[in-house]
Amino acid sequence: MIRARRICVTAVAVLAALAGSPGPAQAEQARESGLLSATDDNPLPPGWRIGGEGGERELVWRAPKAVPMGDARVEFRTGDRLLGVPKPAKDGRTFRLALDESRPQQLRNLQVTAAGRRLDVAADAPHESGSREARPPAQAPAGGVDPGKPGSYRTVTGKYDLDPVRLPGFDTPVEMTAEVVAPKGAAGKRPLALFLHGRHATCYKPGSEDDVTGDWPCADGYKPIPSHLGYLRDQRLLASQGYVTVSISANGINAQDWEAEDAGAQARSSLVRQHLARWADWTAHRSSAPAVVRRAPKTDLSRVLLVGHSRGGEGVNRAAMDSLYRPPTAEDGYRGPVRWKVRGTVLIGPTIFGQNPVADVPSVTLLPGCDGDVSDLQGEDFVDGTRGIGRGTALHSAVYMVGANHNYFNSEWTPGEAVAPARDDFGTDPEQPADPVCAPGAATRLTAAQQHKAGATYIAAAARLFLAGDDRVRPLLDGSGKRAPSADPARVLTHAVGGRRGAGFLPDGGAKVTGARLCAAIDPDPAVACLNPQTPGSSPHFASWETDRETGRSAVDLKWSTPGRAARVTSAKPVSLRGSQKLALRVFVPPNTSGTRFDVSVTDSSNRRVKLGSVRVDGLPGSARTASHWAQELRVPLSAATRAGLDLRHVKSLEMTSRSRAGRAWLMDAWGWAPGTPAVKAATLPRVDVGRTTVKEGDSGARTYRIPVEISGRGSGQVRVYVLDPDSGRAGSRLVTVRPGSHAIDVPVEVKGDTAYGEDVEHDIAVKAVRGAVVGKHRGGVTVENDDPEPVITLSPVADRVTEGETLTWRLSVDAPVAVDLYEPVRVLPVTEGAELSTKDVDPQWLKEWSGGAADPERPLSEADLWVWLHIPPGSTGVDFVVPTVRDQAAEPAESMRLALTDRNAEPLPDRPVLTGTVLDKP
């Protein structure tokens, strides 16, 4: 008799991530061929199984080879539904999701994804959209200034290593280690640029080719991977131009962030602000500073630039938010005063799991066109997600770098430059044709040196605009179509929102569309979604979030088969373009297409219509593995409207008329545009953070709990609250007006007690800002824990002595019906005496179904990979395990097989009986 293990619960978004430590894990390599899933007629795909021990149940996936530790979040899904985020094992191949965190009715269409790409299937064969091969875009004209040129200052370099700090939710303290590069001999106080690296392996074994781990601190014989040293070239460039720079280490967070519900965003923010607080102390008391800081110029902490790579990008975004809008005290690792001002952020291939950008802090987001880690380029939301949230004056720029991968912006993640093992994250499969865009040597692919130089140039451009206030650099970033020669030969395209853009046409908010289709960024229905899931490649504008549908994320889908088709977008109320010089449209077309043309017209409230001009757009280089459906900025002057006497204060509609023979395009938005960079002042906004409460279900009665939500800050704003159904995973939503101290987000959860062994249940909500608000921790809820004893499970014989041609039968039983699916593994073991049944003594179809193998070559049954998971459905008290034998003509002695209950690693449970079944020869 054994105690059954707890197994099933509804989906919860505990934000975790993948760890990639090497080395064999023998316990993880048990055979997984004869698995049953939540329905007996729906076997799990290869590589999947149900596991668990000690009162736990898990959904387990084992990759064919190690999955490197990276920044994208590894997720288990059933179709379009998120099951949860699994915990990585030490071997880098095995991922486990506790089934008390996920309970779909049926485990169908299981998938493993990371940033939208499948990890459990082979990569799609390279695909070219359109009729042309992937070619680099035309080179843009040079801008008036080149921020990639080194400045006149020599530099000083050194490190500091302070006592580690404890951060909420993390057991192990996090290092306070940093590398400083500063200008030598610069007069006066200098701006500070702080760099934060992303999620990467933390330790390596010197002399090995691939021995890296996700441990912290490092084990004996291993050294820390110095990810924070990977930006030294960027730091030296900025320091030569007069900026003090510091790059901080976050290995301690990378090793533990799989446990954090927000994937470590709050921890990274806390670490950044801990460092900034030290710099504030050292500015006030210079004698207490480390030696390298004393050798550097004094810092002007009213001018701070935060640079974050990958999860570091999401971390510095949260640090900028927390510097303006204080986070909940219990979850914050820095509780002191804010003695700095963040003037801007640079986000390199960033994650944004919460889709919660800071609207009133300017930003530049670098999107690598060949990103093999955060491959959906979800960082586009740092631009798109700011629309309508704050004052609208902060410039938010997206910089699409054709041919750049994720890792090569950091030299310590670059093969041939890193001290530890490193790789090209885009990766190549020798069994597949080379990717036409991103394979090394392709005309569109950058080398590591080219990519890093281009990255440094655009980091310096952001510093020059946000810290030095040099508006001459803005055309390199804001969609004006200028290039920085120092970034050559990289092809770089930009678009932006904010800055001196005025009112605009947005598909959301009640706009009416004729001659085209108003489509949803996120929807499982291809007829509703902007981009059919079967379309090769993806769009950064449509990166997924927590739900399978979203309200308020729309675009206009234009499709035509002949020239002259007009698509009109009519705003809910007229917009004012007065004071604008041009109309700036953000439009994308299918990758690898060329020559798409439109006439652009506007109509005022008096129905006067004026053609403003014509635009042309070519598709970006793209393949099935790239996110190349990305909008380019197209501008037309408003001078024609002024000459015609159009009332630019009351423009009611925008019209795009196709001039190409046939084609397709998507309009993201259109804005009145004028040159210049306005001063930015952050709005006083309310802040929303969702917490989590864990309660016991109890034995009887009903109790009502409420999902904890803290609303702080000042003013009022609107957020959209998604309530996730714990059974289906589907989400309903509502628009809520929030004010500090209010209980506007009131989500009651009724908990009914019982005495039946059942499941833990997660009642979750997810929150996203809509207007005049910020969201910190975006997801949380009430976890209802099952508190009833586990049922007793028994494996007993029903027919364990039969004649050949009959069926051996054992019964797996529970002492009382339960309300959840139960799974128990059993394994066929070698016999200890006498003859053993062979693969030819059992029904061949049964053998194929349970082991995946054939009878030939004949071998003992214990060598046929017969480790199977038996399913007892809710309400049932047991299930039979049957072994149909076959009759033959040979005279044989009695033959037998042994059957045992096992743990999740296929090892027989100690002190449990091993049962024997015997088959006698037919008389």
List keywords for this structure.
10% helix; 923 residues; 9-stranded mixed sheet; 9 helices; disordered N terminus; 6-stranded antiparallel sheet; 51 strands; mainly beta
Describe the fold and architecture.
The protein is mostly beta strands. The protein has 9 helices and 51 strands. The strands form 11 sheets. The protein has a 9-stranded mixed β-sheet with strand order 10-11-16-12-17-18-19-20-21, sandwiched between helices. Strands 22, 24, 25, 27, 30 and 32 form a 6-stranded antiparallel β-sheet that branches. Strand 4 (74-78) and strand 5 form a beta hairpin. The radius of gyration is 30 Å and the shape is globular. The two termini are 36 Å apart. 54% of the residues are buried. The model is unreliable at 1-42, 101-105 and 125-132 (pLDDT under 50).
Indicate the mean pLDDT: 90
Count of individual beta strands: 51
Q: Could you give a short account of the major beta sheet?
A: 9 strands, mixed
What fraction of the residues are assigned to beta strands by DSSP? 25-35%
Spatial ordering of strands, largest sheet: 10-11-16-12-17-18-19-20-21
Q: What distance lies between the first and last C-alpha atoms, to the nearest angstrom?
A: 36 Å
Q: Supply Rg.
A: 30 Å
Q: Poorly predicted ranges (pLDDT <50, ≥5 residues)?
A: 1-42, 101-105, 125-132
Helix percentage range: under 10%
User: How large is the count of helical segments?
Assistant: 9
Anisotropy-based shape: globular
Structural class: mainly beta
